[in-house]
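Note to self: keep these together.
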Amino acid sequence: MPAAKRASLDDFYASLAEAARPHLAELRQLGRSAAPRASEQLKWNQPAFVQNGVMLFMLQAFKGHCSLRLPLRIVGEHKAEIAAAGYESGEGFLRLPYDRPVPAALCRALIGYRVAEFEATGATW
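Structure:
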């Protein structure tokens, strides 16, 4: 069954399962600090950080994990870095199980790569 349509960011964060709240709160803070010129919006029922109308990255919540979603090229270029940190990635996402701490330095770095790419080239998703 699909997730209920969220009315706002506050609604999204308030509706999170207890296990997801700490991870999503930490990712949200990392996003705010690493992309200070981006605004946070709901895109596809998930929080996304958008700058000048372009989505930079998205946060996703699932039952047993959350994800930091970035353009495929960003994740692909840093697969070795992600693997070295002991985390899984897929087609444009870093998988973050709720039973492990958020790898703050890795997430900050990935967001930083995306922000730098956007600010240098204006690259869209």
